[in-house]
Amino acid sequence: MLCSSFHISRLAIPSVCALISFLAYTSQYFFKHFEAAPLREHEIWRINIFALCIWICYYRACTVDPGCVPRDWRPQDVKQLEADRASGRQRWCRRCEAFKPPRAHHCKTCQRCIPKMDHHCPWTANCVSHFTFPHFVRFLFYAVVGMSYLETLLFERASIVWASRNLPSYLGPSVVQLGHLFILFVVNSLTVFMLFILLVRTLWSLGANTTTIESWEIERHETLLRRARHYGGYLEGPGGVRVRIKRQEFPYDIGIWSNIREGMGGSSNVLSWFWPFSRTPDRNTGLEYEVNGFEDRHVSWPPPDPDRIPLPPKDVGDSVAFTGAETSGYDVQAFNQRKAEDLRRQRAGLEIERRKRFHKRLAEDSEEDESQQSDGPDEKGSDYGEEGWRNSEGERLRDFGVDEDIEFYDEEDLPLGVLIQRRAQAALKELK
């Protein structure tokens, strides 16, 4: 049982801890016994201070709750909600059975919607979100700075060894010390190089106030714009519906200073951005965000995507029916259509229906609506559908930890109960 439940991802955090310990502490053991150039006192202090900052920030990046969407949260802008439904930009998560705030996504690992989800980091076993992003940035910063400082110390010792390479071996370091120095130098160099690239990318996203998922969405939007230029500004969605594709500006870039301040927890104190014990962003935030006003305030992000619009309901027979005096005819019809669709999927043994890749749909000559959907169970896997689209870096949504079935196929219009509740509230307002 233990072997069957074990997953290699559980080794991620212990591996990172082992790497930090190896570089921070075995290096000091090496320097202490390297007679040609032992560490000076201020160098020992710097190494251990950097190591302490790394430990604190990494611990907080791993343990701080990435947040969740309150069950009773409701969008305040009803007009925007109606526009989202009309354009296929769903704000309802069927997994959580709750409204989904702007910039939130359903994490497949955490199994809930995460506010301002950036990605699920395997090395922290936690989501990088609105609440954990500042700790994650500080961890990367201190890791890069600390290991860069260690790199200079290792390079100085390696230079001494190289300069004395012609001396007798008994006058220099032992073979064990040479091997230790070589391993430290290689491991530290590779690690700081990879973390530096990740830090630069993270700081770029911080300055632009974009998450990695939103960067993917921006590139996806550019791809849809290029496709639409060849078809008069329109692309075809499920059931043959034509969707107009027009350029939409990213709404959350509010200026580099405001972007950094918002990303680092909302504080204008620059020193707090670097302080390892800085507080986590207020738990009452993360559901609404300031916009730049380039687009109409009722227009939400991401832009319309024909391949992320729910499939149209099929015709229903008399075998499924619903009646109730408390509902309108539209509600009854919507309920019957959805129930019939669920029943049809259960009988077919399908969880989702995937749209074929764009280039495959273009190659098909059939004009039937069914030609845009898979003909049976998902035998070819998720790479078969349009959710397999990758950006220029070869990334797809699932690489960020997002539940692709939710993002592409499993979000529908508002459930019947919510529609009834909203109509009842509107009726009460009219009576008042």
SS class? mainly alpha
| SSE succession | HHHHEEEEEEHHHEEHHHHHH
Percent strand? 5-15%
Round the Cα radius of gyration to an integer and report it: 27 Å
Average pLDDT, all residues? 79
Low-pLDDT segments, ≥5 res: 314-330, 345-351, 365-380, 410-416
Shape annotation: elongated
Oligomer classification:
single chain
The share of residues in helices is: 40-55%
How are the strands of the biggest sheet laid out side by side?
1-2
Individual helix count: 13
User: Tell me about the biggest sheet?
Assistant: 2 strands, antiparallel
Count all strands and give the number: 8
Distance between the termini: 62 Å
Description:
Keywords: Acyltransferase, Endoplasmic reticulum, Lipoprotein, Membrane, Palmitate, Transferase, Transmembrane, Transmembrane helix. The active site is at 121 (s-palmitoyl cysteine intermediate). One of its GO terms (molecular function) is protein-cysteine S-palmitoyltransferase activity. Residues 88-217 form the Palmitoyltransferase DHHC domain. Residues 314-330, 345-351, 365-380 and 410-416 have low confidence and may be disordered. The chain is 47% helix and 5% strand. The N and C termini lie far apart (62 Å). It has a domain at 8-274. It is mainly α and 432 residues long. A hairpin with a 5-residue loop joins strand 7 and strand 8 (242-244). A two-stranded antiparallel ribbon has the order 1-2. It has helices at 2-5, 12-33, 41-63, 78-87, 133-163, 175-208, 212-229, 256-263, 270-274, 329-348, 358-363, 404-409, 416-431, and strands spanning 92-93, 98-99, 105-107, 112-114, 119-121, 126-128, 234-236, 242-244.
